Amino acid sequence: MYYSLAMLLLGYGFGNTTQVLVLAAQNAVERKDIGVATSTATFMRQMGGTFGIAVFGSILVGTLTTSLAAAFPTGPPAGVSADRLTGSPAVIQQLPDVARIPVIDSFIHAIQTTFTWAIPVLIAAFILSLFLKEIRLAGRDDVVATAEEPAPA
């Protein structure tokens, strides 16, 4: 039930954000360029997501690897294979306490570090958003006026 509610909330937030960004991009260009603006906004959002996942995923994995190496300088405890240290939560839950607690601490540290590195990016994005110029949303009157203009021969 928790996961269903979390996915519902996340989907609702992304859904509302996505439409506003596409509408803003479409409103900022001439009517003839709406398709280009829409595809460019979608492409840039996908590239930003891909780049963000790559960068922050690297930070997460790098920090996790370093933390696990510090927690187990001589290798995993006896009877525990190294691949189980980064397994699924069910696998980690079955580890003995001597291995499970440092593994969980390493994951916590890696996730905290990743979010800490995201803070400057969020601050920069917020500051940049303050410099966006406000454009009045085009209405029906604007569409009719545009449609009545003669087409070039």
UniProtKB/TrEMBL annotation:
The keyword Transmembrane helix applies. The chain crosses the membrane at residues 6-29, 50-72, 115-132. It comes from freshwater metagenome. It is found in: Membrane. This is Unannotated protein. It is a multi-pass membrane protein. SUPFAM superfamilies: MFS general substrate transporter. GO terms for molecular function: transmembrane transporter activity. The keyword Membrane applies. Keywords: Membrane, Transmembrane, Transmembrane helix. GO terms for cellular component: plasma membrane.
